[in-house]
Amino acid sequence: MIKNDHLSESESWLKERVKERPEVGMVLGSGLSDSLDSLDNSLEMSWGDIPGFPTPTVKGHKGKLLFSEIAGKNVMVQQGRLHWYEGKSWREVIFPIRLQKLMGVKQLIITNAAGGIDKDLEPGDLVTVTDHINFSGDNPLRGSNDERFGVRFPDLTDAYTEDLRETARKAGDNLGVDLGEGVYVMTTGPSYETPAEIRALRTLGADLVGMSTVPEVITARHAEMHVLAISCVTNKAAGMQDQLTHEEVMEVTASTNETLGNLIEEIVSLL
Ligand code: HPA
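# hypoxanthine complex -> structure
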């Protein structure tokens, strides 16, 4: 159980150690944690060392925070994330996002591994998210509203800021990385979807499917952070290829890390 005072505990502990306040934050998801490993002079800490911070359980999730600089901007990098399917509460899942807000982050770049529902998407493609469908069956803001962060009924009309998507497009052009665009749907996992579910989700307008991101984006928008989300397509969604394995997801993310890292650095330099 995470209480709000755990957030304050982590915040004060970090603020004693991190001199420069980060303005840009990042969340590096499944297998994508290594994409910014080469950052210079970064201050690195394991989640387990931060008082009050919840701990991850999933393989391929690093559970670290880095504070560094990219193109003269102070950044906070969250390596790994917490998922609802791990048995975590929503409060735990969104804890690191609220911590990013408390540390000063205004623009948040979220990454994830996703299955491609759109028939044109191939493993290894990078796609900026234009909108989402919350199929988790719940909302991380349910319960009493924490007024420190935002209003009771946050607007999600522009959840994925157009300016940031435009910046991502320019960064992609500069690097010769062809970025697609699509709607992301969150399912809870941990099982992958059935082929019938994927057909239904396609009919509903989803292009990408994954088990994260949506609660983080809702939390970030509640706290008036601007969000850019980038999906790394790791597989064709259920029923569109023979079978789905976590190993395949990890292989594809591993081979995409370098491109994604370069893309994020270019995006930050253009902000
Ligand atoms: N479904 C849900 N989550 C995923 C997938 C998928 O096909 N691929 C990577 N994460």
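# post-check
The two ends are 37 Å apart (CA to CA).
The beta strands are 24-28, 43-46, 64-70, 73-79, 107-116, 126-134, 179-186, 208-210, 226-236.
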